[in-house]
TrEMBL record:
This is 14-3-3 protein epsilon. Residues 65-94, 310-332 are annotated as: Disordered. Pfam families: 14-3-3 (PF00244). Residues 65-87 have a biased composition (Low complexity). PROSITE patterns: 1433_1, 1433_2. SUPFAM superfamilies: 14-3-3 protein.
Length: 332
């Protein structure tokens, strides 16, 4: 059953728990289909590159939350950094992704404590629509810089118009989830794990705004992102184990914020190294159910440390790969 149709509205009002179950089933189906489409279109893609660590309730949903090849209105980034031309399949995929968002948003605004599965599906749904647009923005911005270096470029105005369109889409998506977080999810969260998850999510989407905003808007987004990440960290450091996937995912994304938004390689490396070392020290206490998720995020922390420390090498040392990007956590 489509949880957005008329029959579902009655279920929403009279049997909310049944409605939530239908939404979970519905979104899991679309998440699985999105993951399969991604694998079919990018058979050689590293699921970690430029995307999410993908720790979530199900492997299919996690895969859908990573670097996606679908984008609807515009192309997405392939593993080699090239733009892919959108087609009818992309348009259909984009519609499905927004249906996932609408379905999970309907549950999120119920002002109840979401289950772990619902929380992860909400994150996956929004990651699907934001991830491809962030990739598109990077590609278009790179093209714009190249066109600016050419005298009398005829393509520059078109590229700038396209970039503006992508930025408007990004802002709309970010504003939407930030409103849901501030008005519903954070006030309704009662357990530490949920509170850390939502404050981390808030920090992430404010960071996405800061990636393309300029001037006072960028400053405000960066400051608010920092505040959200710090709020999540205060809770995580006192109530979650160092090996907990959500605490590790927070450290991963917070360190990316320091590196990419605040341009502070020292703080980024210190945060990532501390999180990695503390988790290593308690690795023997890691539960079997979270072992895979936690160790994957630890690997991403180490990968970023390797990348960032190579960036900090004096001039004349080996050059890093020019298109290398820091790796982020997704649905922890």
């Amino acid at each position: 059953m489509d949880p957005l149709n008329g029959a579902a509205a009655s279920l929403y009002l009279h049997r909310p728990e049944d409605y939530r179950a239908k939404v979970r089933e519905y979104v899991q189906l679309y998440a699985t289909e999105a993951a399969l489409r991604s694998l079919q279109r990018l058979p050689g893609e590293d699921s970690r590159a430029g995307g999410d660590s993908g720790a979530s309730a199900s492997s299919a949903a996690a895969a859908a939350g990573g670097a996606s090849s679908t984008n609807g209105a515009h192309g997405a980034a392939a593993a080699d950094g090239t733009a892919q031309v959108s087609n009818n399949d992309d348009d259909e995929s984009s519609m499905s992704e927004f249906k996932m968002v609408d379905a999970m948003k309907a549950v999120a605004v119920m002002d109840v404590e979401l289950t772990v599965e619902e929380r992860n599906l909400l994150s996956v749904a929004y990651k699907n629509v934001i991830g491809a647009r962030r990739a598109s923005w990077r590609i278009v911005s790179s093209i714009e810089q190249k066109e600016e270096s050419k005298s009398g470029s005829e393509k520059l105005d078109v590229v700038r118009t396209f970039r503006t369109q992508v930025e408007q889409e990004l802002k709309k998506i970010c504003d939407d989830i930030l409103d849901v977080l501030d008005s519903h999810l954070i006030p309704s969260a009662t357990v530490a794990e949920s509170r850390v998850f939502y404050y981390k999510m808030k920090g992430d989407y404010l960071r996405y705004l800061a990636e393309f905003a300029t001037g006072a808007e960028r400053k405000e987004a960066a400051e608010n992102s920092l505040t959200a990440y710090k709020a999540a960290t205060d809770i995580a450091n006192t109530q979650l184990k160092p090996t907990h996937p959500i605490r590790l995912g927070l450290a991963l994304n917070f360190s990316v914020f320091y590196y990419e938004i605040l341009n502070s390689a020292d703080r980024a490396c210190k945060l990532a190294k501390t999180a990695f070392d503390e988790a290593i020290a308690e690795l023997d206490t890691l539960s079997e159910e979270s072992y895979k998720d936690s160790t994957l995020i630890m690997q991403l922390l180490r990968d970023n440390l390797t990348l960032w420390t190579s960036d900090m090498q004096p001039a004349g040392d080996d050059e890093k790969e020019p298109d290398a990007e820091a790796k982020e956590g997704g649905n922890q």
